[in-house]
Amino acid sequence: DTVKARLSPALSDDERFMLMALNEAKKGEFTTRPNPAVGCVIIKDNLIIGKGFHPKAGYPHAEIFALNDVKNSGQDTKGATAYVTLEPCSHFGRTPPCASALIKSGVARVVIATLDPNPQVAGKGVAMLLNAGIAVAVGVCEREAKELNKGFLKAMATGLPYVRLKMGISLDGRIAMQNGQSKWITGELSRRDVQNLRAKSGAIITGSNTIIADNPALTVRLPDVELDNIGTTAIPQPKIVVVDRRGKLSPDDDFTVLKNPDTLIWQDDLPALLKILVAKYQCHDVLVETGATLTASFLSQNLVDELIIYQAPCLLGATARPMFGGQFERLQDKLNFTLVDVERLGDDVKMIFLPKNL
Ligand code: AOF
Ligand code: ZN
Predict the structure, then answer these.
(1) Which atom of ligand 1 is nearest to the CA of 54?
(2) Ligand 1 centroid vs 164 CA: distance in angstroms?
(3) Torsion sign across C-alpha atoms 103, 107, 111, 112
(4) Can you give the residue ranges of the CMP/dCMP-type deaminase domain (predicted)?
(5) Which of 19, 297, 321, 333 would give a disulfide with 328, using CB separation of 3.0 to 4.6 Å?
C-alpha cells in the first residue's frame, strides 16, 4: 500500500477539498431520496471554514448548511471557495436556489464535481454563477461524485432507475433447496451488507413465487441514523413491488408485504414498471431480490445495470434451485458480465458485475 501511495500522483488541493465534500455528502446516502446526496465545504486561505450536507428532501440543501456553518462560527464567506459535489440548483423547488445563496454569500469561486441533469437545473446553476462573475470549475472528482448518486443521475437523464440485481448463492450457483428452504445460505456479514443495499433503494422488486415461498418482509432493519445537522432520522422504507405474472396473489392474502398499503402488485411488463417507478413514485435506485425466473426476465431483457452476487462456501446439490432460469442452446448465446469489484465478507465473497450488453 505504501508503494502504491508513493506511485499515485499527489492529489491537488481541489481534489482534496472535493473528497471532503463527498464525505459530507455520504452522510445523507440513506435518507435524501428521492433527492441526491450532496455535500459542500467552504475553504478560505486553505482552511475549512464551513461544511454541510443535504440530510433529507424538504430540508435545506448542502450549500445552505455549509454557508450557515460559516456564519455560525463568526467567519466570513467573502472571497472563499465553495466545493459542491453537485451543480448548485437554480430553481425554486421545496427550497430556494442554492446558486443565488452562493452569489449572495460573496464566494469568489465554486468548484463542482458534476452537473445536475435535473431538467430544472441542467447547467443553469453554473450559468447563474458565471453571470455573477464567480469563477467556476466543473469535473473535480467527477467519477466519485457520479458513483454516489447513480440512481438519481440515471433517472434524471433517462427516466429509468438504476437497477441492481442481488443474489445470495452457493458455490454451485444455487439459491434454495428444492423445498424452497434458503435460510441461510450466505453469512451474517453478507446479510448485513444487503441491508445497506436496501437502505439506498427507493424500491425493491420481487416475484410472487418468492413471496409465497418465503413470506419475506423485505424491510430495512437498520438503526435510525444520527445526522449532525438535523438529529436522529429514520431510514425510509423502500417501496415493495411484487411481480405476479400469473395472478397468484390477491391483495388480502396473508403475506407480510401485502399488509403494507404501499405495496404494488404488478402483472408483467417490466420496462413499463421501471418507468412508472421513476415517473410516479420517484424511485431512482431499484433493487431486484427474487428467484430464477424473474431474474432471467430482468437479465435477458437487458434491464439490469449491476449484478451483485454474495457467494457462500457451500454446495447445495443438483436438486437445489438455480440462480438463473434462462436457457441457451449455443455457447455464443450466453450472457456475459464484467467483474468490477470483489470483496471478502467473512467466509463469503461479494462480487459486482456489469452486464456486457449485446
Ligand atoms: C443542490 N444542493 O444539496 C441538493 C440539490 O425539492 P428541492 O428544493 O429539495 O430540490 C430538489 C432538487 O435539487 C433535486 O432534484 C436536485 O436537482 C437538486 N438537489 N441541489 O444545489 C443539494 N440536494
Ligand atoms: Zn440547491
Answers:
(1) 3
(2) 24
(3) negative
(4) 12-137
(5) 333
Give the count of beta carbons closer than 10 Å to the beta carbon of residue 252.
8
Residues 6+ apart with CB under 8 A from 101: 63, 64, 67, 88
Please write the tens of the pLDDT for every residue from 264-275.
999 989 999 999
Write the CB contacts of 131 (distance below 8 Å, at least 6 apart in sequence): none
pLDDT digits (tens, 9 = 90+) for 164-208: 999 999 999 999 999 888 999 999 999 999 999 999 999 999 999
Q: Give the pLDDT of residue 94.
A: 83
Cell numbers found for residue 184: 441461510
- To the query of whether residue 306 is one of the catalytic residues in this protein, the response is no
Tens of pLDDT, residue by residue over 200-236, are 999 999 999 999 988 999 999 999 999 999 999 999 9
Grid coordinates of 119: 431538467
Report the distance separating Cα 175 and Cα 318, nearest Å: 12
pLDDT digits (tens, 9 = 90+) for 92-105: 888 889 999 999 99
pLDDT in tens, 20-39: 999 999 999 999 999 999 99
What pTM value is reported for the model? 0.93
Place of cell 425554486: 92
Would you give the distance in Å from CA 343 to the centre of its chain? Answer: 18
Beta strand 239-243 pairing with 231-233: unpaired
- 313, 64 Cβ separation under 8 angstroms: no
The H or E element that residue 94 is part of is none
Res. 2: pLDDT tops 80:
no
Interface pTM (ipTM) of the complex? 0.92
Q: Which ligand is nearest to the CA of 284?
A: 1
Q: Give the torsion sign (CA, 274, 299, 306, 210).
A: positive
pLDDT at position 214: 86
* Residue 131 to residue 151: CA distance in whole angstroms: 31
For the record, the C-alpha cell of 74 comes out as: 463568526
Distance CA(309)–CA(353), nearest Å, equals: 8
Give the closest residue (by CA) to ligand 1 atom 10: 93
Instruction: Give the nearest ligand 1 atom to 40 CA.
Output: 3
**128, three cell numbers:** 447563474
